[in-house]
Records
---
Amino acid sequence: MPETKKLSLEPYKGTRDFYPKDQFIQNYIFGVWRKVAERFGYLEYNASILEETDLYRAKSGEEIVSEQTYSFTDRGGRDVTIRPEMTPTVARMVAQKRKELSFPLRWFSIPNLFRYERPQRGRLREHWQLNCDIFGVDSIEADVEIISLAYEIMKGFGAKDENFVIKLNNRRALNRLFSEMGLDEEKQKTFRRLLDKKGKIPDFDEQAKAILGKPFNANLEPDKETSELMQKLTKLGITNVVFEPFLVRGFDYYTGTVFEMYDTNPVNPRALFGGGRYDDLVGIFGVEKVSGIGFGWGDVTTRDFLETYNLLPEYQPPVKLYICHLENYLEAANQLASDLRKQGVNVAVDLTSRKVSQQVKTADKENIPFVLVVGEEEAKSGKFKLKNLKLGKEVVVNQENIISSLQIS
RNA sequence: GUGCCCGUAGUUCAAUGGUAGAACGCUACUCUGUGGCAGUAGUCACGAGGGUUCGAUUCCCUUCGGGCACCCCA
């Protein structure tokens, strides 16, 4: 064998392996997302992780595409990018079937997304994100629904109101403010980024003055639209909402309400979800304009949040019963397993010839709730000692009573 | 991509310019048909590569990975 470089055991930088216990948590998070989204009448869609690079160039700008995405040229010479976000894809899909879709549209997806960045806590190169969007509703009622959907998902995870805060702002109001200040396009962009950092940087006032040529002192009351939104949310019992006049969000395509949700515990400094209204996005595909509002909700920050507040469920494998066997009884054990599987029970059989104590130990370590042993006694009597490993209790049952005994747990 | 910090058994940690310890875990036995407790024995590591040195896990460089800040935040 030729000498080869030792292969790394670690997952690729900024990505995660999901061992069964990790996947269990991932499934739990996805499950809550899906359950609540469907409860609000949202339909699930998906698409390829690959898109033509132009899709992102059109709205994100060359810099983001070339420096912060996984992009390559395929063998046919096409510029391809692994999707860094879902919104352009869903806007494309909506635009493509603009004429045959019936609006309003409520859609959700749980795509994995990739960005080429230096990983940090809460921010990896691959992550999954719940995307919920409403298309074709211009009124504030869509803003109300999308935020209450997000709020109900937090409730679905067991979060308390004091654990998180939803910050609101309005891009239209912000732009109005910028116009009043007489800022040109370029200065607006620069100043918007500065605003986004206010609170993080100590010399905000000086920097603001450098851009504006004068001190920054604006009226920081909520605009009319945001006030109305907050009132409507309050009526729904959603009160952990604050007006955040410096909330900007990075993308230029937002046209109205923007929002983000933060953990109130500073160990998780990144937003769990964020989104806003983008009424002009579908229109850039050259079809009749369709308004939209939605959010993206990351799995990484969510997991950190749930760990912080001890809200993760206890691991439970899908296997309900582990069948052990004595020498020469593996065949009988498999037969029993086969019968039970036909009735819909998840059963695993120990395939080794180890001592029964070892077999039981394996079941226990795998958190399998029930175990039974097949041996001479059982073969003769047709009765099984079914043991609940959590309670340490045994019941003696006929084969036909095994299933009902499993359900007692 | 830039700067700074970090990288020791499976895990959490310790020590040291002369090749490393603990706890938990894991394996076996005590226990010839039932795990969790206990006892005994055993097992496993200096992320990788190069340099300085008589000798490096320890110092230096590179690289890989993680964290923090910047950047950006989809």
---
Amino acid sequence: MSTKAYSIKDIAQKANVSITTVSFIINGKAVEKNISTAVIKRVEEIVKAVGYKPNQVARSLRTGSSKIIALIVEDISNPFFASIARLVEEKAYKRGYKIIYSSTENFPEKMTELINLFKSMQVDAYIISPVQGAEKDIQSLMNERKPVVLFDRYLPSLAANYVGVDHFKASYDATTHFASTYQKHIALVTIDLEVQQITDRQEGYKKALLAFDLPFREHLVLKVPFNQQKEETVEQLVGLFKEHKEIDAVLFATNYLAISGLSALKKMDKLVNDNFKVIAYDDGEVFKLHSPQISAVEQPVEEIAEKIVSLIFKQLNTTEVVAKEQVVLPAKLILR
Amino acid sequence: MSTKAYSIKDIAQKANVSITTVSFIINGKAVEKNISTAVIKRVEEIVKAVGYKPNQVARSLRTGSSKIIALIVEDISNPFFASIARLVEEKAYKRGYKIIYSSTENFPEKMTELINLFKSMQVDAYIISPVQGAEKDIQSLMNERKPVVLFDRYLPSLAANYVGVDHFKASYDATTHFASTYQKHIALVTIDLEVQQITDRQEGYKKALLAFDLPFREHLVLKVPFNQQKEETVEQLVGLFKEHKEIDAVLFATNYLAISGLSALKKMDKLVNDNFKVIAYDDGEVFKLHSPQISAVEQPVEEIAEKIVSLIFKQLNTTEVVAKEQVVLPAKLILR
DNA sequence: CTGAAAGCGCTTACAG
DNA sequence: CTGAAAGCGCTTACAG
């Protein structure tokens, strides 16, 4: 039963040629190496007959390339990351690469550990949604000339490839939409992380208020602690809405904050309508099926994934140093 | 800049010992092998100083173990699979294993290809949500004594480890709930796959009707083609609800069917209430935030993941043949 | 047109 | 208490 896998040696023996010849043939170098058609045919038939697959581990050890790409995100089950994971997998697979993933839960130590682990696995390239404090680790990867693409979060101190969304514009547009429909007390619900893609959203909100001569009111900006339990966030939001009855519009800076927000409203029996408008971040079925439907800032997942993969393979396909690119894609404001 | 990684040889040289000694020390066999404390200390200090990490690829080639577990599902971005992926990753990571994933999109050929690929990567174990027609491939894995755990879908012809949910009981209970609140025309919306976990849901529905002396009406069961576009499904559902105005309850057999169903209702401006009840499959924020809230059959994701991982490691931790287990967990009917 | 041999970085049976 | 050496399964520079 327990059929030991065939090795290149077995094939060579069966075909009565050297393993060199077999290697050339299975690697498509037969013609280049002037192997006779008779030999090629004989070897290929044996390969097919016994179902021989070259041992990738041995190949990796010899070539230094594993055909594996690491995907490091905060949480693979987050719908945004799960979608990216799916699309990236599909695109990489077509090019003969597999994806190995891991979730950092936003811990820099976990990030360090993961990168070391992946290094020792001779992973060929890295797609990373970085945490604050991962700069040295990522820099070390780049020093070793490993293809790296950061996404979602930007690390300003790092000259790295990056694919993300224009969060400033997204929240500027969202806030502008509120202001242009004469909402006067626009709240922003965000998290207390000092990372660029979050602060950008706050800046966009501020600047849009300014453009409409609306005052920036500190107390209308709620910064929810990162990693806080949902129940607690809902409580905080109920508090905010009760305390500031003048609020007539809310922009939520993340998907899950918007979900907590809608839960809070449901709890309070408060309706979303022209006197209380809502825009969520990242679109999803939740928002489409809500009554009324909820407007949302949609990140272009397909384009993000495509860009990530193309940047990775641009590096993988050359030994030269490729100029770093920072790609910022527009989000789409979907009004409902 | 491009610092080549240190090898065991480098460490041995620096420490003035053989690579054998270094190997024993880094593998925790120093005491067992009676290495002197002085040597141990010297080597450990050098290892730490240069940040040496053993090359996993070389180790894999030598030992035949990669410390990688393959996760093969239909679609990693499906929330159910994404949650499982997350939990399995976390649990495996704690035990020193990493997860490599791939989506089959329900194609048996992709499944075959993936398994061959993973074999050549010397993956240590397999967690698979199988497609119909993958029996031989999975059997070949088991013949090679690779730990395998199937989940979500059961393949009756295979004596394999399996973790899943009692779908018969889940839909029996859901239908019973409808019947006991005097709904008379209970529809079932399912897909046209002849896999056990789907047919079980139909059987549960049928048997529950029978128990309440309700007739089984063919035209109240809609079998949506697998892989059909959402828009088309919504149209079909609108058609069903319009044509059969007598329907007063609907059980949806999957998460996405329920979402299509709610979209259809929204489109028709038809409300969910005591005259038209709905139960969805797999719980989620969509159902909690819907107005009114939607009842749902919830699969115990945490328990499923825990059981999968424990079955995998039971096999990984022994060389003996472990008796196969079929674990069927109860779903939870959440009434709202 | 084809092959012998070195070497990728480890682990481990064997020897002393 | 420690080391020399074989070998895991490949690829490739070199030789003929």
---
Amino acid sequence: MKKSAEINTTQVCRVRMQAITDAMSLLTGKWKFHILGTLIEGNKLGFMDLLRELDGIGSKMLSKELHDLEMNNLISKTILNTKPITVQYSITEYGKTLSPLIDALANWGINYRKSLYEKSELN
Amino acid sequence: MKKSAEINTTQVCRVRMQAITDAMSLLTGKWKFHILGTLIEGNKLGFMDLLRELDGIGSKMLSKELHDLEMNNLISKTILNTKPITVQYSITEYGKTLSPLIDALANWGINYRKSLYEKSELN
DNA sequence: GGAAGTACTTTCATATAGGAAACTACCGAG
DNA sequence: CTCGGTAGTTTCCTATATGAAAGTACTTCC
């Protein structure tokens, strides 16, 4: 006789759903995790560094994603008045709180690929 | 003098990058985490149940996403020959391995919202 | 036999994401 | 004064994602 939602109407679940939506709104797109991961590994990188590290990204995408991440306080940008002006992007303390999540995602992906490989070995 | 990538050329980083790409290819979209999360909470749900639980989703999207998730062995579908034919979707054992990731995402989202709230309280 | 329920699919339309290529602007080396 | 490097922006285009609404097919309840 259930004609309406039963599970996700509990307060706990609604909060969780909202939280997932929130988190995803900051992290969607093809490149955000890659950018964050790269900045966690290599502290302080310039625009051109990132362009080289992130295989396949274009300058427009990179520029846009860096803005988004900066707006959300996940990365920070420092402009240095060096001879040819340079810029340093780095992860913020708050951005570092994503480390476990990125690790979890990467590890899951590694195991996923492993499981596909094992499946194909059965032939 | 670095004119080429330095960080992501290490084997470890390339594997990580690939892993993130792999994982995301299965999990992108507005609804996949919500569907998986709902199926983890409420074991065995019908199509209409999910349509009610997932506030805002349309039947086309739900149908497509369920197919995708089933193709990737993250959920399973059982057709019951009940009076009006019913269907049961449930999470697979493999799908359950995403639980920690979904929890991490949800918890990060909860803290994110909390941090926004704290910021706005400073006014 | 009409309403309502299960489980989708189809059609049409729009929004957003993503990419290639060219362009700007500034600087130093040779 | 041209080449190459830094750090982007702009334009144009295509692909994918998402959504609303209606349709299909089958069944049971009243």
---
Amino acid sequence: MGITKTEIFSAHENNLATIFKVLGHPARIAILQHILNQKACICNDLVEELGLAQATISQHLKELKNIGLIKGSIEGKSVCYCINSSVWSEIQLKMNQFFSQEFSLNECC
Amino acid sequence: MGITKTEIFSAHENNLATIFKVLGHPARIAILQHILNQKACICNDLVEELGLAQATISQHLKELKNIGLIKGSIEGKSVCYCINSSVWSEIQLKMNQFFSQEFSLNECC
DNA sequence: TTTTATTATCGTAATATTGCGATATAACAA
DNA sequence: TTGTTATATCGCAATATTACGATAATAAAA
């Protein structure tokens, strides 16, 4: 037990859940918000900005990278992270498609 | 360690992350999808529909109830769960407000 | 009342996540 | 080369999540 039974769900359900899961941590929301505010970002900024250790920030950045929401390029000694706008839009669209589904308003409850 | 440091993030960041976290499991996405398709729902249906034990389904329903996304009313022996449309819309709006934030397109990466 | 059906909760095992110190890696600076 | 700075990765401890059997609670049916 303890392991999520992904095999019993559809690819779409798993995909959507994975995206939501990555967004389901305040540090990762805060990182995205910081990048949005700064227009760009360097990891070390985040260590000062948020109150988390460098190793922890790096780990969160990796998860955001895994779903393609951010991308990073090496800029000399540091790495410049920014939003991947095409993936950003795709994710927004996916979420909206899910939430825009019609449902009967004759709520039984 | 192992505990999320919610105290260092804003209420808005924590709130948004909590919503995403609840949505971040394929079983919960599947449950919502089932309710959407059926227009209404009874827990026991889900046990047959999804391949999870009754206790597990009940637990997932509880988490969806915690953020107000679904509500249930007792219908004789069973419980009728359905989407709470006002919370549903609020959540969709919150997600869109986050994803609609402007960001510079002069991506550095 | 007893039985049956439905859902919730408890307890627990397995696994995942979070956070961080220590260390590795890479690139520039002296 | 040696030192410095920035980031990634490893390893581990603490905590959280997932799943489920067992059982409790509730309401209708017999």
